[in-house]
Amino acid sequence: MDAVLRQDRLPHIWCPGCGLGTALTCFVSALVKSGLDLDKVVVVSGIGCTGRVAGYVRLDSFHTTHGRAIPFATGLKLGNPELKVVVFSGDGDLAGIGGNHLIHAA
After folding, report:
1. Are 69 and 100 in contact (CB under 8 A)?
2. pLDDT by residue (tens digit) across 28-87?
3. Which of 37, 52, 57, 105 has its CA 20 to 30 A from that of 89?
4. pTM of the predicted model as reported, rounded to 2 decimal places
5. In degrees to the nearest 10, what's the CA dihedral of 18, 22, 23, 25?
6. Domains and CATH numbers, the chain
7. Which residues does residue 88 pair with via DSSP β-bridges, in sequence order?
């Protein structure tokens, strides 16, 4: 996990019990086990707490505007199909503001 996590930035700043730290740990663990080329993995995040994910990983990342993580991720994938694009986003980004994008992406 050290190849992906920026240990010098830990412990994370998320609130105890929030779940984002657990989600990040699970993502990093799965990523390491997958054997994917880390140069081909991109993390896309919106604003808010999930926007901090990129600061904890050694991956290319894209911090987007509120509610627009999915359209930006779609554009990255369309422009560079060999990328593995992962979106980290919260309820406001995905459902509140970006709900329409979520429907179209599904």
Report:
1. no
2. 999 999 999 999 999 999 888 898 898 899 999 998 888 888 999 999 999 999 999 999
3. 37
4. 0.84
5. 150
6. 7-105 (3.40.50.970)
7. 45
